[in-house]
Design goal:
Shape: globular
Mean pLDDT: 95
Distance between the termini: 48 Å
Structural class: alpha+beta
Radius of gyration: 15 Å
Low-confidence stretches: none
Strand order of the largest sheet: 4-1-6-5
Oligomer: single chain
Strand content: 35-45%
Number of strands: 7
Length: 140
Amino acid sequence: MTAYRNPVPTVDIIIMLEDEHSNVKPDEIVLIKRKNPPYGWALPGGFVDYGETLEQAAIREAKEETSLDVILLRQFHTYSDPARDSRQHTITTVYVARAKGKPEASDDAREVKIFNICNVPIDMAFDHAQIIEDYKNNRY
């Protein structure tokens, strides 16, 4: 019998925060500093659980890592390079979302900060620097 291996689905979320007047700053996004390998700064996100939709996973992962309740605005893009995650072949679907409140690191996030998309950290995990660059160039 042949054993088949399939890529693992994940989600990542580009989160923009609303100010007290419900205005969003599209040039500022929430990033987490990962507590577990691979280390570095990353978009909030993670693995899709069995029986969960991609949208449910994105909302759950955003809450787990940033303590924010997000509203998904749209699906941005899917990234599938087999080398994008050093642990295994993953396929991520990236969502753009908005949220109110102050992000707080939780779950497997060591730290959470707001960054301008033109000034993200050098030590980005996975292919998240490329995702942010794509977002910066294709936001609208």
